[in-house]
Amino acid sequence: MTGVFITFEGPDGAGKDSVLLRVVPALAAHLRVPLVETREPGGARISERIRDLILDPDNTEMDPRTEAILYAASRRQHLVEKIRPALAAGKVVICDRFVDSSIAYQGAGRGIGEAAVAALNDFATEGLKPDLTVYLDVPASVGLARINAHRRDTQYDRLDQETESFHDRVRTAYLKLAAANPQRIKTIDATQALDQVCADTLAVLQQYLVNYWQE
């Protein structure tokens, strides 16, 4: 693969959507190669259908292992249809969430085991890992407060129904992943004002993509 694979991660309410909305156009304007923006779960037709199933707030009876398997299945299809072809073509791929999310949310949040979920996703991805991960960090209480404050402006999905203790476990798992993978995962303090979060994020991206950068 000749492209660059960059993922964005963070607990609910970290502001990933807002940051990506600002950062991606700014990044695309300075890259010498094409940029592909995508998301998980989703990113391809079959993957988006699985996304609807996973996030449907009416599916409260979904078993945690079923959820983890569905995420991995969606990811596999997305990888085959979109991510790998883009990387093979030398493009920069920006993906909103990837395997780290499953480890944090299903492995730790649902309590089914971080190692088990990592192994499941290693099978689904054939070991593909991002070159760089931007992790936007906020305490669970801050993230949930943001979600509740903007409830009318955002879609209410099944994960939004979870307790603060669930989101605390998710954040703890993310911090553990960041500590174990400091070369890949770069942590941004997402409790800051949005302008500063975006500036910090762009600085990380520009430094990593220096060989692809043009003024």
Layout of helices and strands:
Elements: E1 4-9, H1 16-28, E2 35-39, H2 45-55, H3 64-88, E3 92-96, H4 99-109, H5 114-125, E4 132-137, H6 140-149, H7 164-180, E5 185-189, H8 194-208
Give an account of the 3D structure.
The chain has one domain (4-212): P-loop containing nucleotide triphosphate hydrolases (Rossmann fold). The protein is built from eight helices and five strands. With 215 residues, it is of the alpha/beta class. Helix content is 53%, strand content 13%. The protein is globular, with a radius of gyration of 16 Å. A five-stranded parallel β-sheet has the order 2-3-1-4-5, with helices on both faces. The relative contact order is 0.21. Helix 3 (64-88) runs parallel beside helix 5. The longest helix has 25 residues, at 64-88. The protein has helices at residues 16-28, 45-55, 64-88, 99-109, 114-125, 140-149, 164-180, 194-208; strands at 4-9, 35-39, 92-96, 132-137, 185-189. Pfam families: Thymidylate_kin. This is Thymidylate kinase.
Q: What structural class do you assign from the helix and strand content?
A: alpha/beta
Q: What is the CA-based Rg, rounded?
A: 16 Å
Report, as a whole number of angstroms, the end-to-end distance.
Answer: 26 Å
Helix content: 40-55%
The CATH topology: Rossmann fold
Domains, number: 1
* pLDDT averaged residue by residue: 94
Read across the widest sheet, the strand sequence of neighbours is 2-3-1-4-5
Write the CATH architecture name. 3-Layer(aba) Sandwich
- Number of E strands: 5
Order of helices and strands: EHEHHEHHEHHEH
Low-confidence stretches: none
Question: What is the CATH superfamily label?
Answer: P-loop containing nucleotide triphosphate hydrolases
- Sum up the overall morphology in one term: globular
Continuous helix count: 8
CATH class: Alpha Beta
Protein name: Thymidylate kinase
Function: Phosphorylation of dTMP to form dTDP in both de novo and salvage pathways of dTTP synthesis.
Keywords: ATP-binding, Kinase, Nucleotide biosynthesis, Nucleotide-binding, Transferase
GO molecular function, one term: ATP binding
